[in-house]
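[agent] plan:
  1. take the single chain provided in the ticket
  2. run structure prediction with default settings
  3. attach structure tokens to the ticket
  4. add a short note for the reviewer (M.T.)
[agent] executing step 1
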Amino acid sequence: MADTRKLSQGAVVFATILSILALFFYALQIATLNSLTGSDAAGNGYAQAYGALEIIVLWILLSAIVLIAFLKGAMPAPAAAVALILVPASGLVVFNVLELLMRPSQPPGLWPLIIPASIPPLVVAYSFWALLPPVRAAIPARLAGIAAWGLVAALCLAIVPFDKVRNAADDRDAAILAKYEADLAKLPADAPLWDWVPFFNTRNATRLDDMLKHIATLDRRQADAELMLERGDFPLSFLGRLDLTPTPVLCDRARALLRKRLAPLVLAVPESKPFSDIAFEVSDALAAMKWLIGYDCDATAEVQAWETMVKGYKDPAYDVYELRDLRDPKQLGAIVRNYPERFSQLTPKAHLRAWLSFEDKKEYRDPALAGARTLDHRTADAVEMLRSGGEGDPWTVLRLLPALDLGATPALCDAAQAELHEELARIHRPKPDEPMSYKELRDRLGTGDPFGAVIWLASHGCDAEASLSEAEELIRTYQESAARAAMLSNLAAAHRKK
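[agent] step 2 finished; step 3 output follows
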């Protein structure tokens, strides 16, 4: 029998508007669900929250569209009853999909995405079938209902095998982890390095860090590492994580292994393979070369060879620029000059910054300061640190200014006073109606001593009149006390010495 129900123009327009909104959230939902883990932990958390919100809004819109189709269209009662069950049920299923996609690297991967990608178009299509008489005339009601809601039901049920695949993968991971823990527990505390290496392959960063800290206490690690480098089975990405000493032997063997690992990666036909094929090998080698170069092992030739090899692949990643930058002569020895891991690695070539990095450790304070005072480049280094803006560098120099036996050069005087001005300008100056004690000023200064630094500069020939006056002006904004009077007296004496 012919469908005699008239077209409801208002209902179609309203349903169309809601469908356009639904399309917008549908596109957002698919994009979000496809990249739930593409950022750091905080970014991934936001993505998952946005994904959940997008699902809620989209399914509200789908429910509204179905309701309009039922009230103003020609949706059969049985189909409406099925829709009443399947639309909210499919929304719950998609939340399950969201949970599965939070770990896309594990089975079933991204396959569950087919569920949220397919259900909304089916729901909207059936709703417009119910609203548009010409479409109803072309497609029988039973065929339309079975096709749309049958597929929606099948997609909802598809979550069951997807869940089973994930559960099976979790069970396998749990079994592997249990075996990993059992095997690791059996390993002797003084086992050779090569027995530890298989256990480096873990996603548990805390477990790995604890393992590496233990290995760093083993006396045999250096000899074992050199032997593994010679054999060719050393994990290059861990070269800088085992607290090794960059001896000439280790340097030479690491460079030889880098050349050995490079050889099979060189393409006979340029750009015949994508860079992704060798991304892990390049990342491992780059980590090793950064450590070698930083610790004054001249692996520049190997860096150049790896850079040339990488450029032969299609679409090389940012690694190629890191390799290029690593060839900068300034990089050679940069770590050991500036940020050595151990006090024993300090040499007269080391930057003042390197020596002072150990000054806050009780057992090294005196030898660190004594060594710093012997550096013939300490004044130039101090100027560089004052001007660098690096975290802690200027403050460290000002704090230790009287203890470093620096030369009061014009460059040092200017750099120190510029930094002092910035520090003093940042300190709160109380108003007359908010009296504050001089002790509160000292508390604001923390462990620094800008007033002592000003006095040192003035007493060593720097033109520090402006800095002395600025310090005095700041101190006078705080309440009188014996300590305040003593400091003002010291500053006044510095004026007279000038």
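[agent] step 4 note for reviewer: The chain has three domains: 9-166, 193-332, 410-497.
[agent] ticket updated
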